[in-house]
Amino acid sequence: KWWIFSVVWSVGCAVDEEGRKKLDVVFREIEALFPPMQTVYDYFVDPRKDDFELWQTKLRAWRPRKGDNIFQMLVPTIDTLRHAFIYNIVVAAKYPLMIVGDSGVGKTVSIEALLNERSSRFYESTSN
């Protein structure tokens, strides 16, 4: 399970929604253990159960705190959960991590949240 999950989020991470649909078919041909609903991108491997679970099960209700800066908010969504999960795995393994994407999608806020959870001795940050 971990192997195919790793392939989905390495080889298959840079595709758009249409590409995800196509790769979903390919990945399911490789690994039949994925649950039949949703796509392979909608699941993670729960380390406690060693089984696939929907990302949605990790999503909790959220409300902004009064006075929070809107540009510093990290609204929990399935995408932010997925990204944080992957970021944490990569950083914990002490591999370099490069985050790319359009302006305003939350790259900086996501990385700041990750780094705020860790001691500064474990990272070096460069932002352009």
General description of the model:
The protein has 128 residues and is mainly α. 36% of the residues lie in helices and 6% in strands. The chain has helices at residues 2-8, 17-30, 78-92, 107-116, and strands at residues 43-46, 51-54. A two-stranded antiparallel sheet has the order 1-2. The chain is globular and about 50 Å long. The N and C termini lie far apart (36 Å).
Give a concise summary.
With 128 residues, this protein is mainly α.
Radius of gyration: 16 Å
Assign an overall shape.
Answer: globular
| Percent of residues in helices | 25-40%
Order of helices and strands: HHEEHH
State which percent range the strand residues make up. Answer: 5-15%
**Could you describe the largest sheet, including whether it forms a barrel?**
2 strands, antiparallel
The side-by-side strand order for the widest beta sheet comes to 1-2
Question: What is the CA–CA distance across the termini?
Answer: 36 Å
